[in-house]
Design brief:
The chain is built from five helices and no strands. Helix content is 47%, strand content 0%.
């Protein structure tokens, strides 16, 4: 969910590359999306579970994430790769 937005900047350095197919050129394996390790995903999952109001505040404050150097698009993608729903509806401003 939104927690990936908070942790993306540091988490990107902890990714591990997946291997490519046996018929693929060696350089192709470098183009396959990375799977973040537990040391990256576990803190994101914990933040979603225990700090959702704080994360929603970050999400609902335009420009705040960018001021921390966090790319929202990449953060949502990281969340998905960690197996966490990127549904931001629980952070609607009316709640």
């Amino acid at each position: 969910m939104i927690s990936a937005l908070l942790l993306l900047a540091t988490a990107a350095t902890f990714t591990e590359a997946q291997g490519g197919g046996s018929n693929a050129p060696s350089c192709a394996s470098k183009l396959i999306p990375c799977t973040p390790p537990a040391s990256c995903c576990d803190p994101i999952k914990e933040a979603v579970r225990t700090e959702l109001p704080c994360l929603c505040n970050l999400y609902n404050t335009p420009g705040l994430l960018a001021s921390f150097g966090i790319n929202v698009t990449q953060a949502v993608a990281l969340t998905t790769r960690c197996g966490i729903s990127a549904d931001t509806s629980s952070c609607s401003r009316g709640n």
